Amino acid sequence: MNPLHSSTAPLVGVVMGSDSDWRVMSDASQVLTDFSVAHEVEVVSAHRTPDKLLRYGREARARGLRAIIAGAGGAAHLPGMLASVTTLPVIGVPVQLATLDGLDSLLSIVQMPAGIPVATVSINGAKNAGLLAVRLLGATDHAVGAQLDEYASDLERQVEAKNLRLKE
Ligand code: RP5
């Protein structure tokens, strides 16, 4: 049995600034479920629950997490602040709000100072954030790597099938 798959302890933390971000962040959770990666989901707000943010980031590695996916919108300081208090890889998801088209969220997350990296995906790109976390795990786990190869082949088959349908 693949040790990653047999783990019931969460390996990836999916956190978001508000429950209102779930409409986007559920895509990350879905990908992790599809790849059978144990994960947890938590609302952690940089501004409304700052103590919880610090605790979450500082305890993440000792609790067994290997990566954190953090989504937030507007003044989106959650991913960057988490990256400041953990050395685990942090993947940032800019969540689009009703104003400013999500550009505010993107710019708040992407422009990190040198030394404190956040891997920022596209606006509302929670699916790719999930896949990136799976790839991080797959870098050292052959079974997860094989699943990712199968996923890529499947994508290729889907594109070719659509291509053929176009010509019918
Ligand atoms: C951010 O404020 C959250 O990440 C969310 O995207 C945004 C709005 O939060 P709510 O007012 O909907 O709780 O911190």
Explain what this protein looks like in three dimensions.
With 168 residues, the chain is of the alpha/beta class. It has a single domain, classed as 3-Layer(aba) Sandwich (Rossmann fold), CATH 3.40.50.1970. It is built from 7 helices and 5 strands. Helix 2 (22-34) runs parallel beside helix 6, helix 3 packs across helix 4 (78-85) and helix 6 crosses helix 7 (142-167). The longest helix is centred in the last third of the chain and has 26 residues, at 142-167. The chain is globular and about 55 Å long. The mean pLDDT is 96.
Largest sheet: 5 strands, parallel
Q: What sequence of helices (H) and strands (E) makes up the elements?
A: HEHEHEHEHEHH
Shape: globular
Number of helical segments with 4 or more residues: 7
Percentage beta strand: 5-15%
The level of helicity is 40-55%
* CATH architecture classification: 3-Layer(aba) Sandwich
Integer tally of domains: 1
What is the subunit organization of this protein?
single chain
What's the CATH C level?
Alpha Beta
Unreliable residue stretches: none
Strand line-up across the major sheet: 2-1-3-4-5
Radius of gyration: 17 Å
* CATH fold call: Rossmann fold
Class from secondary-structure proportions: alpha/beta
Distance between the termini: 44 Å
The total beta strand count reads: 5
Mean residue pLDDT: 96
Ligands bound to this protein structure? 5-O-phosphono-beta-D-ribofuranose
Please write out the topology.
Elements: H1 3-6, E1 12-16, H2 22-34, E2 39-43, H3 50-59, E3 67-73, H4 78-85, E4 90-95, H5 103-110, E5 119-120, H6 126-138, H7 142-167
Parallel strand pairs: 1-2, 1-3, 3-4, 4-5
Helix pairs in contact: 2-6, 3-4, 6-7
